[in-house]
Amino acid sequence: MARRKKIYEGKAKILYEGPEPGTIVQYFKDDATAFNAQKKDVIEGKGVLNNRLSEFFMTGLNNIGVPTHFLRRLNMREQLCRSCEIIPLEVIVRNVAAGSMSKRLGIEEGTQLPRPIVEYCLKNDDLGDPLVTEEHIAAFGWASQQDMDDIVHLALRVNDFLSGVMMAVGIKLVDFKIEIGRVYEGDFQRLVVADEISPDSCRLWDIESGKHLDKDVFRRDLGSLTDAYTEVAQRLGVLPRSAGTTKPTLIN
């Protein structure tokens, strides 16, 4: 499709005006970043894999009644989404201690948490996306109390869905982050899961071996990021397992 006006460019995606009012086109780049963009690289095929995986997860959520901004995939790197007003928070759900939680609280990485823990970070790259509390969110008006109740409900439903899907293919969902957007329908608004859900935004460990299948492969120099993401896509059936080939053919 013909390119329209660029609205925004982030570290991993570009947003363009959509073909119809109230829509945007989300383009997935091959750029990989970590540590608030202090570490950068371009990894061929990463954007294609994340586009297909995010399509898989968002479609699954839509099918079970969890609203998302996703409408349909347009091609190998682009998807059509509803335009929404992004709440300036990253919503993180943790099932297992890892990453910054282990560092902050001194909990050994890999420790199973007693229940899923929901955390919030302010979306601000200049500040390093600092952790904030519901008190901060209410005081500064980033979201109302009703919004927060809905956000927690959405986040835990996403967690239930992703945990089950991953467990079925031998992968442990350690944690993930999502963004939430407001969609306006006349005088009413509703909250939807926005942005993307992919190995860029999740921690995924092989249940048997503990092997990382997420962006920590890039953060910690643990091997090929595309190999890790391809393995996730193959296990989920997004990609076929092609015997005798190193680069599987993507299913249209």
TrEMBL record:
Biological process terms in GO annotation: 'de novo' IMP biosynthetic process; cobalamin biosynthetic process
Pfam families to which the protein is assigned, alphabetical: SAICAR_synt
PROSITE patterns per record: SAICAR_SYNTHETASE_1, SAICAR_SYNTHETASE_2
Pathways involved: Purine metabolism; IMP biosynthesis via de novo pathway; 5-amino-1-(5-phospho-D-ribosyl)imidazole-4-carboxamide from 5-amino-1-(5-phospho-D-ribosyl)imidazole-4-carboxylate: step 1/2
GO terms of molecular function: ATP binding; phosphoribosylaminoimidazolesuccinocarboxamide synthase activity
Cross-referenced SUPFAM superfamilies: SAICAR synthase-like
InterPro entries referenced in this protein's UniProt entry, alphabetically: SAICAR_synt/ADE2_N, SAICAR_synt_PurC, SAICAR_synth, SAICAR_synthetase, SAICAR_synthetase_CS
Keyword Nucleotide-binding part of the UniProt annotation: yes
GO cellular component terms given for this protein: cytosol
CDD domains: SAICAR_synt_PurC
Domain SAICAR synthetase/ADE2 N-terminal, chain residue ranges per copy: 6-235
Catalytic activity entry: 5-amino-1-(5-phospho-D-ribosyl)imidazole-4-carboxylate + L-aspartate + ATP = (2S)-2-[5-amino-1-(5-phospho-beta-D-ribosyl)imidazole-4-carboxamido]succinate + ADP + phosphate + 2 H(+)
Keyword terms of this UniProt record: ATP-binding, Ligase, Nucleotide-binding, Purine biosynthesis
Enzyme Commission number(s) from the entry: 6.3.2.6
Family under the similarity heading: Belongs to the SAICAR synthetase family.
NCBIfam families, A to Z: purC
PANTHER family (UniProt xref): MULTIFUNCTIONAL PROTEIN ADE2, SI:DKEY-6E2.2
HAMAP family given in the database record: SAICAR_synth
Protein name (database record): Phosphoribosylaminoimidazole-succinocarboxamide synthase
Record lineage: Bacteria, Pseudomonadati, Pseudomonadota, Alphaproteobacteria, Rhodobacterales
